[in-house]
Amino acid sequence: MDLSYLVTPFLAWLVAGSLKFLINSIRARRWAFGLIGYGGLPSNHSAIVSSTAVLIALREGLGHPAFGVALTLAFVVMMDARSLRRQVGRQAEAINRLAGEAAGHEPLRTRMGHSGLEIVAGVATGAGVALLVFHGLR
């Protein structure tokens, strides 16, 4: 098995997560350990699936069936990040407002989903990692 297909999405996840931590830390002007998780720039999920799709395109070609599968998966993940998970975050905000200071209510995490810019940044991150792996392992 070609390990680049395992290494590339892992590296994309690591790079995107590190960038997200740095960006959040700069914005918060403190170490942003509490902001690690869903949402934010760049999208980890988009970076992971796009790195895989780009690596397959570079290695196997755009006409290969595996590229079609990877591209389909990437679109499903990115649409989910943009719409469904964003709606979950909005619902969590509403539940937190309704519950207010109710006894025993631990606030739900509201930072879910991604904006279009966060998804595009994730795709760029994933594509960049795939290009580095492709050219670095030649």
Automatic annotation (TrEMBL):
Keywords: Membrane, Transmembrane, Transmembrane helix
Matching InterPro entries: DUF212 (IPR003832)
Name of the molecule in the record: Divergent PAP2 family protein
Pfam families assigned to the protein according to its UniProt record, in alphabetical order: DUF212
The organism's place on the tree of life at top rank: Bacteria
Keyword RNA-binding: no
Source species: Roseateles flavus
Lineage of producing organism: Bacteria, Pseudomonadati, Pseudomonadota, Betaproteobacteria, Burkholderiales
Transmembrane annotation, as ranges: 6-23, 35-56, 62-81, 119-137
Keyword Membrane: yes
